[in-house]
Amino acid sequence: MKNIILGVSGSIAAYKAADLANTFTKEGHAVHVIMTASAQQFITPITFQTLTKNKVYTEMFDEIIYEDVRHISLAQKVDIALIAPATANIIGKLAAGIADDMLTTVIMAIQKKPIVICPAMNTAMYENPVTQDNIKKLSGYGYQFVEPREARLACGDLGKGALANLDAIIAAVHRLLEQGAIV
C-alpha cells in the first residue's frame, strides 16, 4: 500500500478526479485528497471521503492537532503526490513558491518524492507563455507533467487543454511509484 496525495483544483475536470481516487483506493492505496476552494465549486468533499474512506482536506486551519502539524505530516508520509486537474492558477502558485492554502503548502513540503501535475484548462490559458514558463520551471525542479489532450473543451473551444486520459494519468503514477523516491 502506498500513500497518495490527490490534489484537486478548480476545473470542470474535477469530477474526473473522483475516478482517480476510486481507482487508487480499489488498488489498495491510501488516498488523501486535498481540495482547493475552487475545486469545491465543482465537486464536493463528501464524494472523495466516501470513495477513499479518508478525511478530505479543504482548509489549512480546519483542525488544530497539537501533536501533528498536518501539512508537514501529510508531506512526510506521501509516496507520490498527484494534482489532477491542475489549473493555471495552481501551477502558477507552485512555480512562484506561493503556499497559501492546504494543497500548495503540502506540495511545497514534499521532499524527494514524485509530484505529478495534470494540467486542465482552456487552450489559450495552457498555451499562454506565462503558463508554459511555469511548467518549464516546475519541470526543471523535477515535477512530472502528464500533458493535456486536444478535445472540445467545456467552453466550446477545440484545442489542447483537456485533462489527460485517466489511463495515462494512472500509468504515470504507477510508473513513478515503481521507481520510488527522487534523489
Automatic annotation (TrEMBL):
BP-aspect Gene Ontology terms: coenzyme A biosynthetic process
Top-rank taxon, per record: Bacteria
Any single GO CC term annotated in Swiss-Prot or TrEMBL for this entry: phosphopantothenoylcysteine decarboxylase complex
An example Gene Ontology molecular-function term: FMN binding
Keywords noted in UniProt: Ligase, Lyase
Domain Flavoprotein: 2-173
E.C. no: 4.1.1.36, 6.3.2.5
PANTHER family from the UniProt entry: HOMO-OLIGOMERIC FLAVIN CONTAINING CYS DECARBOXYLASE FAMILY, PHOSPHOPANTOTHENOYLCYSTEINE DECARBOXYLASE
Protein name (Swiss-Prot/TrEMBL): Coenzyme A biosynthesis bifunctional protein coaBC (DNA/pantothenatemetabolism flavoprotein)
Source species: Treponema primitia (strain ATCC BAA-887 / DSM 12427 / ZAS-2)
